[in-house]
Sequence to fold (493 residues):
Amino acid sequence: MSDADKGAGLEIEGARRDPGTPYGILLVDDEPAILESLKLTLGDDYRLYTASSGEAGLGILDREEIALVIADQVMPTMSGVEFLEKAIERKPRAIRMLLTGYSDLGSLARAINEGRIYRYLTKPWEPDEIRLNVKRALEAYELATENTQLSAALADANERLRAENLYLRRQVERRYAFDQIIGSSPAMERMFEVMEKVAETDASVLITGETGSGKDLVARAIHYSGPRKDRRFVAQNCAALPDTLLESELFGHKRGAFTGAHADKKGLFEVAHNGTIFLDEVGETHPGMQVRLLRVLQDGEIRPLGSSKTRTVDVRVIAATNRNLRDDVATGRFREDLYYRLRVVEIELPPLRERRSDIPLLAHHFLDFASHKMGRKIHGFTNAAMDRLVAYEWSGNVRELANEVERIVALAGDTDTIAEDMLSEHLRRPAAPAGAAGGAAPEEASLNRAVDALKRRMIQDAIEQTGSKTRAAEHLGIPRQSLQKMMKRLGLP
Ligand SMILES: Nc1ncnc2c1ncn2[C@@H]1O[C@H](COP(=O)(O)OP(=O)(O)OP(=O)(O)O)[C@@H](O)[C@H]1O
Ligand SMILES: [Mg+2]
Fold:
């Protein structure tokens, strides 16, 4: 029988008008009797479509939602296997079954082995067996469909996560942007100019400055405003680890390189590949480490501990120190060649007491931050309180100021202005030395402050150098008791 001449022989059968619920099944066979009997077997639980040739079947596949295809193998114009292979292109997810007599089983091996056919049904069939097979096939189809939907949902979620990630990254960037570095003193303005220029380049930067002066902040701002900002910024404090551990941290190690090295480990230079590494307190490194650092800076080469092979990395180096490295070079404590490699550009952060005009700005900045954080409504400082803040020595620099303001806010209670008596005692004492209090003229007061500042610094230096109060007193040429009294008055611990 050839239904090809009967206008492709399409019949759309038994389609239940409730779309979505029943699955579509396409039956392809050139014998109308077989189609009829299959329809009877499957009943009206499905949307059944029939076609009397492969060509007609493909037409239906193009237009309809089909979950399962059952095709007869022996048909005049296109065999069942040929038809099913073409069906894959049109409906890749539809389940395919082949109907065949026992005689042509051999020719099916290939199709079945390639997994193109879900199951073959033998002629003549047991109606129950067909029903069961169809049910199973549709369950498989449902699972596959669900799978696809889940994958799509997952891809969606991934996309959202990526967007969120990007958002967080932007937050970090903003947090470390230049404008988070407060300061409008000429010294800071000059520093911003240098930072801006250097951020665009790959030049090594050495940041120097006392503790708490903002070296960390500046290093991050340089990274996050330059072309490497989407890559990693990794920081390592070189003073924090003993030599071997620091080496393994920076350059990595092979398993077994030393006791406790249970597995290979990537070093930070590799982690920071294409990004930036921040070597904090680089002045504390030992000679061996200095040689290795020189090698990375010169050739971009690292060699993990216990490995015989070197690797090449592309890492921008920013280093910081609160030591005077030039002195260390002079005394041979720090390699000169490394020093010059590190300080292609040097950024010197002046101590806070040398940019006192920044203090009000910073104090207000930290006040806003702390009152916001603690839910207080403190708007500012009395003039007298601000005078104290501006006059103080701040040996701990910006960090000390930030801590002082935070402490005040925490203890402030119900007030909207910070008054002098809320400041720490050592802040209040030195600027009001005995005798200069009361009716002292402003110049006189500031002279006293300057003298106190000088005394404080000399005493601190002497104690640091000599290691004891007795020797410091000798060094300064004053009796020990006078030193003790003076220290108490100046608020020195
Ligand atoms: N100019 C500034 N504007 C705003 N905050 C600052 C500024 N400078 C420093 N800070 C803040 O002060 C604190 C100390 O700064 P940072 O950690 O950068 O100092 P550091 O020089 O690295 O100190 P250390 O030598 O002790 O490591 C940080 O909380 C930092 O955010
Ligand atoms: Mg630091």
In short: The first strand starts at residue 10 and ends at 12. Residues 442-493 form one domain. The two ends are 110 Å apart (CA to CA).
